[in-house]
Write a structure and sequence with these properties.
Blueprint (H helix, E strand, L loop, with lengths): L1 H95 L5 H23 L1
């Protein structure tokens, strides 16, 4: 009976020992899985940060290009206004130079200015 009891105790001890070993093996496997998951999360975060930085840089570049385009647009609008004024001046000059003689054109312009001044005086009184 004692022998059976010893054998039973040994078997129980072996089972407990085996259960503890299996439990620690399970913990080790879970630990490795968690470590891999954490590494994956870290890797994904690093990728997201890199993508964010690239998009932020792209946005800054696009903002700068937009600013430059707006500046050019303003320059072109001013240039168009200046050219339209030059066209108007040239058309007016050609209208008065119908005779072809610059002296005659000057006299004609002088008469028009005097007439405009006279009209202004009449309007003022």
């Amino acid at each position: 009976m004692q022998r059976d009891l010893r054998t039973s105790v040994r078997r129980s001890f072996f089972c407990v020992h085996l259960t503890i070993c299996v439990f620690f093996l399970y913990l080790h496997i879970v630990d490795q899985i968690l470590i891999r998951m954490l590494e994956d999360i870290k890797s994904n975060i690093a990728k997201l940060v890199a993508l964010y930085e690239a998009e932020r840089q792209r946005a800054a570049t696009l903002e700068e290009r937009l600013r430059q385009c707006e500046e050019k647009s303003l320059e072109y609008k001013k240039q168009i206004t200046d050219l339209n004024q030059q066209i108007a001046n040239l058309e007016l000059m050609h209208a008065f130079q119908a005779s072809g003689d610059p002296a005659t054109s000057r006299d004609r312009i002088g008469k028009l200015i005097k007439e405009i001044d006279r009209c202004i005086k009449l309007l003022e009184s």
